[in-house]
């Protein structure tokens, strides 16, 4: 794999991080920062907020200079907004961070490197800029050839139903059991957490499946690549990304992710969330094009809008319906899903 | 629609064209030039070939200066190669064309505007460069909202089975009957022929369905948008593009395109061409997400590898199998497909 965007290289972007929140519209706008703070708390020295910012990660509020003094290497712009554009205040704050001696990383569609003032400030301070939505150069067109190794992909009924959390929870649980298992990031938050990956929604359309092949190359150590899914085959805005990722991943195993209280597809009131059985079957049918032996091994629910008894009852009901283990990775863990995965691929 | 890439604007790229062949590897490498010469012969003043070039369009071989003297406005680089890169000789010839006073257009993944020598030559001569694979800025994310007007999309069992030819043949036949019908281009050759469009395989992955919505906006004149399909839901390299295009197009009508002698998916010996019935059904199922009323109205075959009696027999066989009119648009026209289309949407 290329070193592009590899946070583990010396002198490159990477932790420790100051998490920049600025002045976000709502709690959803800081989901990138929240993901990094949740999965890599040891990498986060503090958060930077404007005075009127209500959302918080529960980290100490510190200035850029304080962050630098506490050992931060990089300020991560952990906010997102519709369209991915940079507000003027984010540009000013980015320049201030560079002047304070921090590198800056962001995951917006609008790139840091496309703003001349930001580029000048980085150059003047000898700092690194990294756009997580900038795919590495040289990703090839997908070739569909069967490759060695085992791969699991999370797929969803909709966007934002917990595919990244589920995939990371599987990595943690499998490693705790001594399995070789590696999270493969396909979105900006995942890339910040993993330190590398492909922003699959930002590659040129012809290269979606190629990008998926590129992040999960052949492996021969009997371990698993756990590939972060994106979107949904049933989301009319993004299904092309989901299908290309499904084909390129050549998954042996699928885990279906779902938010049981979601009434309609994210952002599209006219589109109901697909029925679970139909959604899983459509993913299996499409996946068989590049891996005829693909199996569903579990269902992961985001039950954060349910009471504990409701969450348990819903998991049981869906488990009965699909004849698969069903858990909320954040509240219940993923042990029964891992049990089933390992049982299905025991040979 | 934006004026980006609109060949009908004064002082912009556009015909008359000198078609540049250079020194292509084989006949397939000049398919862009061949498409333009076939559909818009009145726009083509000649072809430019190197001495050792075997493929020909049957146009007069002329120099760049001769082309300019004959009224050519633009040299079109009508060759393609795997990966879409520019060979050194193409760079040199492009500069020579600019120095001869011609604008230059190309449809390669590697952009004219990314080569500093080419950009300098264009500036020095006051000439225009146009990269057909450069999507217009500002294409939005798809919104999936039902929109007015009627749309037909060509879909395929594979890449390069005649989707563009079929769509253009439908435009010609429908216009001859007095129907309002407009070809909507989604690939570089189609963009050169139509004078505008969206290179759907070159947009950022998140914007595939948005690009399809953008080129076929709501219309209220009772006419048809005829949208050029791309790839195939069954091609593991490009299916994401095909699905996003299918969702964004919201087609009322599908025409399935097929090459009956193709043994495996283009470039992928391990992947057989899908069975016609299964392929059509998969396209209809996926299309229903954004247009539940979608109907298949015909099948278009590329029978160029068959004898005339074989071609007729194959059309009859497939017509019986799918209960749809089946024709080779180039040899037989598309009248029976248009008959069925108009009968299906007669109200």
Helix and strand topology:
The structure is a homodimer of 347-residue chains.
Chain A: E1 17-22, H1 31-39, E2 44-49, H2 64-69, E3 74-77, H3 88-99, E4 103-106, H4 116-125, E5 129-131, E6 150-156, H5 163-176, E7 181-184, H6 188-194, H7 208-215, E8 224-227, H8 239-249, E9 253-258, H9 276-287, E10 295-301, H10 308-322, E11 326-327, H11 329-332, H12 335-344
Parallel strand pairs in A: 1-2, 1-3, 3-4, 4-5, 6-8, 6-9, 7-8, 9-10, 10-11
Low confidence ranges of chain A: none
Q: Under CATH, the topology of the largest domain in chain A is which?
A: Rossmann fold
Describe the oligomeric state of these chains in a short phrase: homodimer
- Name the CATH superfamily classification of the largest domain in chain A: P-loop containing nucleotide triphosphate hydrolases
Q: How many individual domains of chain A?
A: 2
Number of strands of chain A: 11
Rg measurement of chain A, Å: 20 Å
Q: Report the sheet with the most strands of chain A, covering strand number, pairing sense and barrel closure.
A: 6 strands, parallel
CATH architecture of the largest domain in chain A: 3-Layer(aba) Sandwich
Kindly estimate the percentage of residues of chain A that lie in beta strands according to DSSP: 15-25%
> Which strand order do you get reading across the main beta sheet of chain A?
7-8-6-9-10-11
